[in-house]
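Sat 14:20. Reprocessing the chain from the morning session after the first attempt stalled halfway. Input below, unchanged.
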Amino acid sequence: MDTPPLAPIARRSLPDDLARRITQMIEVEGLEAGDRLPTISKLARRFRVGAPTLREALTKLETLGVVTIKHGSGVYVGQRPNSLFASNPALVGTPSKKTLIDLIEARILVEVEGASLAAHHATPDDLGQMEALLARAQANLNDGDVLNTTNMAFHAAVARASGNSVLRQVLEVLTQLFQAEQRMILNIHGSRQQDHDEHIGILEALRAGDAKLAAERMRAHLSGVRAVLLRWDEDARPLTP
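Finished this time. Tokens:
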């Protein structure tokens, strides 16, 4: 029996487009770091979107340092308002198997050390955010778009918790430039529940403050993805853009 083709990769989502529009608004209006943005309800009316979509876009921008969300206070322009990266123009169309493997290998170099540092530096707020993201991921295992965004937000949260700003920004660049590739990897990997369970294991190691275990679990998680990619036959199971 022939193996069916994998699902097409998603086009840029509404939250992605909205994030870019908010960034443009910040630039056009000359807002600076620390300036407060309009309320969620006002922004939702301005851009004619629902509050959940707006919050997802703002979460993306917070990951990139474009905005800072202070619960109970509001949304403020971050220290790096111009750091939203465009999709990689060199990778138009369907990326090759080698590109996907190269991406995972680069992430291994960055994220294993990040997990180790996060075990030492993660705050209760950091851990709480990771837990909330994993709860959202569990509730959306059948929604590839939401799951991919949430999974990458979890990895970004680990990088933030490392306390190393350069490491955090390197991961942000990788994930922002290779959004379509990350979505393809999720499709190829196949076992979303296993992927999720491994994320839970990483969080448990971080909660325990066990740097060695956190690094081991992050390495095993990403190396497992790499192994799946190595076995993937891109001719027999193609992904269409």
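The chain has two domains: 14-77, 93-231.
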